Amino acid sequence: MAKRKVDTENRGFQTRWESEYMFTKVAGKPVCLLCGESVAVLKEYNLRRHYETKHADKNKNMDMEQRLQKAEELKRGLKSRQALFKKAKSQGQAAVKASFILAEEIAKSARPFTEGDFIKNCMIKVCDEVCPEKRQLFLNVSLSRNTIAERVDQLSINLKEQLVKKGKDFIAYSLAVDESTDISDIAQLSIFIRGVDSSLSVTEEFLALRPMHGTTTGHDLYEEVSRCVNEMELPWEKLVGLTTDGAPAMCGHRSGLVAKIREKMQEENATGELTAYHCIIHQEALCGKALKMEHVMSIITRTVNFIRAKGLNHRQFKAFLTELETEHGDLPYHTEVRRLSQGKVLQRCFELREEICLFLDSKGKDTTQLRDEMFLCEMAFLCDITSHLNAINLQLQGRDRVISDMYSTVKAFKTKLTLWETQMRKENLSHFPSCQTMKEKLSTSAFPSTQLADKIGMLTTDFRRRFADFEAQKSRLELLGNPFAVDVESSPPNLQMELIDLQCNDALREKYAAVGAAEFARFLPGTMPQLRIQAAQTLSMFGSTYLCEQLFSLMNLNKTSHRSRLTAEHLHSILRISSAQSLTPNIDELVEKMGHHQVSPSTSNK
């Protein structure tokens, strides 16, 4: 005979049991109103036995009406206690969630963990004035240094788990790697990942910041990058590109990071070939040095330093400009590592050239060089060409930049250089306003257009040389940039049939015109798998290490001389939170995981 299962007998709770045995039903189980114990099986015999064994003497003198009143009173008390417990639990969860939210804001604002105590003190003072009856709720929010540090680590772990989960769907990914030194002279290796999933959605996120206490050879860099890839459980055969800062340890042909990763991919029998790029923004900045006009910049820097280095000179110069009612009231400093500062300094010095000479004359300084017409022409040219270089630099910066768009920007600039060189030889200065100003003011000598045109030619040559690796990928990049203009016959055989289908599809052509090149890839139909894979690989590539450099700026904001003892783990957590772009911490999930934490005694005793 089969064993009986009581949960299938549909036994129901009888209302009369409340007064007869002092039981009520809570969450499907009978619970004693007198002692709070529950009975496992909903059966009258079990309830009667519990009552007669433990509580028979307590209510033996009560009649049925009194027993009903007693049962109702006990039920009201039970419901009141349940409501209080739920409220306490809800308030406790709200306090934990608030601490997570504030910890995230502290991390994003680069403030020390001890700021939590300051914030809490401010909250309490505001509460005392606005809603003093809720003071205890604010006191329950834990914002101590240790709590904030713990919350930041938990938020970082949550973001990493989300990234690992997304990484499992990547069909192609690339890495951007750069290295810098923090305030404690510890080398820090920054690694970002850009992955594309099967729907051709792009995820661009911080992967890791690895402290390197010893050497920073290509082998050392490879070990750290390899560890990150393995921790993310990313397959090596899906690695498409690697963008670096171009340092020898990164790009060495035999022992550099690029060479080591290529060896690793061969060991893993990866079918694809790794495409390595030197950061476009770095190369653009290096091209500017091909002008060989350091003599002009050195005179400008020396002049600015004389005015700015001494407080008295600086104050007098600003007062002098105020007295002359000039458009600008000061000179900026030039910092080598801040590439855009050179253009700003040159522009300001050119506009204030006469005022600067007058001020230096009043200080007894020789201004012969600053008044020389050839020097002024060179300064005007350097001012204009640096302005153009800064403009392209800004165009190349930013997150979520598609490498094909960046290539188009560089390609357009090279075409502009060719035009400027031709126009300069004809003394057409339409795109060089400072040069135009100098030409109009020249008294004796002619404007040196030929020499300056040669400078532009040198710059053009250097651009072509430095961006030769991008020219080698020209067909690949143009395939994403404008697949409708690609020559089918010169394309890889595995793409030719799909390209013909694409270029003959009027609906897809209209969609391309509507959404643009970067978004169009997502609308490629599943009947074009080779084009989708090709698009995914190109979309995954980094054109620059901009994100790494931006991260180093965040690192320097967080790890200062006042926070030099910030641990590597905490620094890593802070940077993951503050640099997150498409990912956000799931705070509700974290609070739920901490549900076993009890609310404070002060709350439960209220």
TrEMBL record:
Q: Which residues form a coiled coil?
A: 54-81
In which domain of life is the source organism classified?
Answer: Eukaryota
Specify whether Hydrolase is a keyword of the entry: no
Q: Which UniProt keywords apply?
A: Coiled coil
- All residue ranges annotated as the SPIN-DOC-like zinc-finger domain in the record: 14-60
PANTHER family given for it? EPM2A-INTERACTING PROTEIN 1
Q: What is this protein called?
A: SPIN-DOC-like zinc-finger domain-containing protein
> Taxonomic lineage of this organism?
Eukaryota, Metazoa, Chordata, Craniata, Vertebrata
